[in-house]
């Protein structure tokens, strides 16, 4: 046991000050999207830098990268023979949206039923606070080397999608703790071991020079919207499974949601069936998804009795973590180009792509973290995945080919990140901080053996 005493008790004693810090950070509307006050972003940056200095990070600097908010960067040298751990998080937040849909003001933190409500509570200021808590639990002198990277523009055009290869020496570590994830459910310690890749596809059809009267010409005049809808229906089978050849889907063996749990989390209407077949984890983490996220067509409110001459759809394609997203994008494009509904050719083009990620989980860092999280939560650790992408994961891993990448955090499936009434459970913040503090000791001891 650490000579300073039980880490659980130390972190528990730290929780009131960590809670106060989290509330103060939530009260800063650090939105890095264009059009929002940059001074709030700078305030959040400065406050976190100050708190890290108080937590033992003496070698602290600002990374001023082009076209992005300032990045808090700091180091603690490793003791002789000890490994180095990189701690990642971000202090910027999503816009709050329509504040009338919040039960309490989004930037006025409110404690209720063991949770703190407010924009950025879960994503990702709680995880930044957990990093600070883990460092303070070791009085700023952890048994491992530390690199801290807290960026300020993750939610809008992160520079870390591309920057690490330009300065690889800044990010050399033995384990990367990317704390921008969370638990499959509250109280279940979870390591995210896979992220799906993403690709955009645009489908467009033009059939007429201009709208023509649907009563006079409908039935023979080629309807662009009808052709587009016919093409889109071929992307899935009758059960809702993706039906595009060349998109990979594998068996998922990690944790899963029950149908009832998934329906509650997503807010499904009563009696609404799920799309697809097979385990939910396989459908949302280890297989493809094609979602129509935008449609250009006449709105119902102003629709005229006319055959539509032009329609366009925006597809968001998610691919297996180990599939090249460009390959998946090409599969969807080729499929749609071959369809030719009613003999009409579609114009299909690709947009942005982002690689997925699959972690190697057999190394000493994973072993140490599983033990640390089991100690913190008093429950068995499960593996989960994310249907979304975190591109910086790949860029950081690329400059650390020998490092283990661990994704975890204080979020849970009901935290409403990016939504209204976002919240984080204080019990999860405490356990993440404790797990990190335990991990530092276990990882250092394991590497030295």
Automatic annotation (TrEMBL):
Residues 196-341 form the Peptidase M20 dimerisation domain. GO terms for biological process: proteolysis. InterPro entries: Cyt/Met_Dipeptidase, Peptidase_M20, Peptidase_M20_dimer. One of its GO terms (molecular function) is peptidase activity. Keywords: Hydrolase, Metal-binding, Protease. It comes from the Bacteria. This is M20/M25/M40 family metallo-hydrolase. The lineage of its organism: Bacteria, Bacillati, Actinomycetota, Actinomycetes, Mycobacteriales.
């Amino acid at each position: 046991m650490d000579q300073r005493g039980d880490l659980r008790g130390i972190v528990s004693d730290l929780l009131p000050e960590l809670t106060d810090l989290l509330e103060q950070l939530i009260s800063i509307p650090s939105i890095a999207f264009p059009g929002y006050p940059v001074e709030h972003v700078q305030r959040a940056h400065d406050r976190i830098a100050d708190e890290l200095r108080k937590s033992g990070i003496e070698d602290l600097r600002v990374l001023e990268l082009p076209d992005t908010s300032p990045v808090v960067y700091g180091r603690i040298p490793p003791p002789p023979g000890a490994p180095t751990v990189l701690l990642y998080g971000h202090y910027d937040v999503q816009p709050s949206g329509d504040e009338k849909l919040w039960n309490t003001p989004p930037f006025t933190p409110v404690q209720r039923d063991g949770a703190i409500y407010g924009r950025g509570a879960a994503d990702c200021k709680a995880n930044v606070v957990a990093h600070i808590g883990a460092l303070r639990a070791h009085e700023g002198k952890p048994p491992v080397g530390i690199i801290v990277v807290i960026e300020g523009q993750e939610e809008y055009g992160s520079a870390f999608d591309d920057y690490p290869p330009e300065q690889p020496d800044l990010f050399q570590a033995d384990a990367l703790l990317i704390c921008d994830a969370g638990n499959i459910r509250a109280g279940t310690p979870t390591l995210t071991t896979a992220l799906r890749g993403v690709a955009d596809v645009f489908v467009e059809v033009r059939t007429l020079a201009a709208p023509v009267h649907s009563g006079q010409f409908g039935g023979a005049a080629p309807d662009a919207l009808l052709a587009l809808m016919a093409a889109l229906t071929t992307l899935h089978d009758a059960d809702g499974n993706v039906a595009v050849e060349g998109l990979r889907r594998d068996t998922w063996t990690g944790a899963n949601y029950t149908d009832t749990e998934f329906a509650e989390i997503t807010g499904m209407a009563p009696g609404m069936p799920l799309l697809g077949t097979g385990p939910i984890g396989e459908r949302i983490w280890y297989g493809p998804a094609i979602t129509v996220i935008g449609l250009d067509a006449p709105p119902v409110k102003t629709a005229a009795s006319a055959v539509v001459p032009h329609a366009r759809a925006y597809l968001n394609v998610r691919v297996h973590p180990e599939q090249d997203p460009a390959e998946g994008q090409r599969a969807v494009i080729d499929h749609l180009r071959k369809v030719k509904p009613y003999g009409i050719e579609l114009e299909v083009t690709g947009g942005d792509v982002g690689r997925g990620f699959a972690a190697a989980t057999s190394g000493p860092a994973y072993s140490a973290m599983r033990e640390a999280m089991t100690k913190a939560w008093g429950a068995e650790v499960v593996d989960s995945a994310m249907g979304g992408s975190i591109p910086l994961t790949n860029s950081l891993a690329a400059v650390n080919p020998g490092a283990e990448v661990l994704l975890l955090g204080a979020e849970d499936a009901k935290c409403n990140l990016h939504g209204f009434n976002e919240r984080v459970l204080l019990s999860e913040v405490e356990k993440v901080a404790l797990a990190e503090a335990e991990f530092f000791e276990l990882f250092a001891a394991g590497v030295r053996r």
